[in-house]
Amino acid sequence: MKAPLLLDSSFEAERYELHAAPVYHFDLARRDFFKVLGSGVVVLLLIEEVAAQESGGGRRRGGFGQRRPQELGAWLHIGEDGQVTVFTGKVEVGQNIRTSLTQVVAEELRVPISSIRLTMADTELTPYDAGTFGSRTTPDMAAQLRKVSATAREVLIDLAAALWQADRKSLAATSGKIVHSETKQSVGFGELTSGRKLTKTVADNTTPAVEWKVAGTPVPKIDGRDFVTGKHKYTPDVQVPGMQHGKVLRPAAFGATLASLDAKPAEAMPGVTVVRDGEFVGVTAPNEHLAAQAIAAIRAEWKTAPQISDSELFDHLKGKSADVQRSGDSIAQKPDSSEDKPPAAEHKLQQTYTVAYVAHAPLEPRAAVAEWKEDQLTVWTGTQRPFGVRSELAQAFRIPEERVRVIVPDTGSGYGGKHTGEAAVEAARLARAAQKPVKLVWTREEEFTWAYFRPAGVIEITSSVEDDGTITAWEFHNYNSGGSGIRALYHIPNQKTEFHQAHSPLRQGSYRALASTANHFARESHIDELARLVKLDPLGFRLKNLQDARLRAVLEAAAKTFGWGKNKPSPDHGFGVAGGFEKGAYVATCAEVAVDRVGGTVKVVRVVQAFECGAVLNPDHLKNQNEGAILMGMGGALFEAVRFDNGKILNPRFSRYRVPRFSDSPEIEVVLLDRKDLPSTGAGETPIVGIAPALGNAICDATGVRLRSLPMAPKALKI
Amino acid sequence: MPKVTELHVNGKTLGVDADSERSLLSVLRDDLDLTGAKYGCGEGQCGACTVLIEGTPTHSCLTQVGKVGQKKIITIEGLEQHGRLHPLQEAFLEIGAMQCAYCTAGMVMSGVALLRRTPNPSREDIVRSMEGNICRCGTYPRIIAAIQRAAATSGGAK
């Protein structure tokens, strides 16, 4: 038997951030390689290689001896007019990194926000980037752009010192100029760099967070006006001359293969092109309506195989997981104590928790516009991995990556659901056949069916607690949902934690915070159960068993603002608390629910969330992320679940898959702990992990009934 | 197949050449390049495609363009007047009532319709009126605040 691998929180990133095999295997001729010409812009700084940086928590990626991906390159250009252009492969999907990254450049370069333009996520213009996921933009890209900008600032000071033959100590950068403190001479950045190509190795001259003037402030969303006026062009809004509209024929069930196809009625339609390439069947037409009619006119028979349904899911995951575990593909954390003797515990508890598959349901569905010009392919698409999608396209069409350009307009959200390039590949295949540019926008039903889901899972916890509230033993097994946030946050002498990979009946992948939501739900629910077992206050019980001062700080802050310990307004109300740590950030959530025992409804009345992710880059956007994550998390906690039967999704529409709406919106207060002494970490994901257990604990407080399956109240609360 | 040859959009009469069965959303977006209204679900469940037809918030994805006739359509592109944003657009910016903002056009149009009907809406009025609009990023509290602010700043006059 192989030794279990040591638990590493980066493990799951590699396992679950994406990974679906290519969907199509096209039968295309191999083409010659040619080089894309360089773009010929003035480069002030060129980062060729950057050493790995540590995030706030000291966590490193690449736990399997891999080198950290070379994703940190960055170019910064200063035009003759003083306009600063920054190139980053990161993608704006609503987390407002276009704003926070602009802030750090403005801070270090000492230029106004308005003179900076970020070019993002264009494989021809921006340096390679592995993707926008894992809450890495702030700890990696923002840190990198700070260094780049600070270095540029120092270079500009050097240039001015040479120009004036002055002591650089008398010079300072301010408002896009270098100013001499004695002579009051000044020269604009554009003037200094004019006509010159300069390169410089980046050194760390960054400004400490306590001295920030622009970073750390609530700068509004960059280009906000374009969004409230409808001017911004998302991928589905992109128009290219001569563009056709595409549709893809979807199989009758997952894994189905074509038995027969009659496309003649579609081929007879004016302006319609039908494409068949292996299992791929699609059409192009001059407009969307005609494309839909053409697809509907195709008669296809599919061979399907029986598949498991949602009613058998959890037995399936556990059963299959056991097989995988025997192959040694599991991760474990050794007990702190090498002795096997049972602890002197007064109470033992064993419970099982489950989480359903949920859908990301980004309001902008997968979409792409593909255009071939000779052998050069350009695709606009909403993806979190522009360079990954470039590779997918290069593989699908067997052409060198240099001939593929992927451009990602600021996108209508992703939540981890847009790591892949299905629509891009499909649109490109259609465009190649039609010999015209093609736009393909997935329908909501396609998005709910042919994307991928947050993994379902089964979690088993066995624990022991002494009468005084000391947790003495902890054994945690996660089947299928993943290893993110799996570690116990509490100081427990005997611990065993394992993640067991399983065969998933549905296509599964990354989702905001990955398995951290499932693992936090199970752990923080179980902790509450232990507190009740020994009749201790759930907050005090947590504080007693933890040693991490940052976790303590968020718990105390949330409890204080919430008014933890106050009396319930009525017996039907309940209070719940949960704490969490993930992706270098700490969260604590207090929730109040009102339960209608007769009607079976749960109303979330109020949520207070305390959040700490080091030095805050933009407090308003950080609050926005917290508020949004609480609301999104309420969906998975209370009512979201993908239902499926024999290879078909049963609820692939918003009318059948309920997502949080206005009426679900509780009173929310977000308390930010701004730790200017600590490096900034990301915040797109961690704010979602606390709400589900806080709600479960509050429901138990109101009713005495412990709910151990997410969603907890898919229709009515079963109590 | 009967054709639609003109539409009254944002105060202008625009020539089109569209099969009457097509959705208003598709004609606005694909033929007139008014892409502010979005496709989100195709079943009237998300509100991203909301436009005003004779002042009534309407799911343009479910509206056949042939049924619109001479009625006046207002899209998000038509709210700005002489370079001045509608107070609700201003309020969205001031409150930061968006993340990815894909839903924003539909939210603003539904909110504008509400403010026209009910110049000083209560929180309950807002929730009831906006329930058909989905923001998957979960910015509902901010959108509620933005509608309240717009009501306050425009003195209920919109």
Query: What is the C-alpha radius of gyration of chain B, as a whole number of Å?
Result: 15 Å
Which range does the strand content of chain A fall in?
A: 15-25%
CATH superfamily of the largest domain in chain B: Beta-grasp domain
Rg of chain A, alpha carbons = 27 Å
Major beta sheet, strand line-up of chain A = 1-14-22-21-20-15-29
Which class of the largest domain in chain B in CATH terms? Alpha Beta
Helical content of chain A, roughly? Answer: 25-40%
Strand content of chain B: 15-25%
Return the string of H and E elements of chain B.
EEHEEEHHHH
Largest interface summary? A-B, 58 and 57 residues
Overview of this structure, please?
The complex is a heterodimer of chains A (719) and B (158). Chain A has 719 residues and is an alpha+beta fold. Chain A is built from 16 helices and 29 strands. In chain A, the strands form seven sheets. Chain A has a seven-stranded mixed beta sheet with strand order 1-14-22-21-20-15-29. A seven-stranded mixed beta sheet of chain A has the order 11-12-9-19-16-17-18, with helices on both faces. Chain A has a four-stranded mixed beta sheet with strand order 2-3-4-5. Chain B is of the alpha+beta class. Chain B folds into two domains: 3-76, Beta-grasp domain (Ubiquitin-like (UB roll)), CATH 3.10.20.30; 87-154, [2Fe-2S]-binding domain (DNA polymerase, domain 1). Chain B is 34% helix and 16% strand. Chain B has helices at residues 24-31, 87-95, 104-117, 123-130, 140-153, and strands at 3-9, 12-19, 50-53, 56-59, 72-74. A five-stranded mixed beta sheet of chain B has the order 2-1-5-3-4, sandwiched between helices. The longest helix of chain B is centred in the last third of the chain and has 14 residues, at 104-117. Chains A and B meet through α5 and α15 of A and α1, α2, α3, α4 and α5 of B.
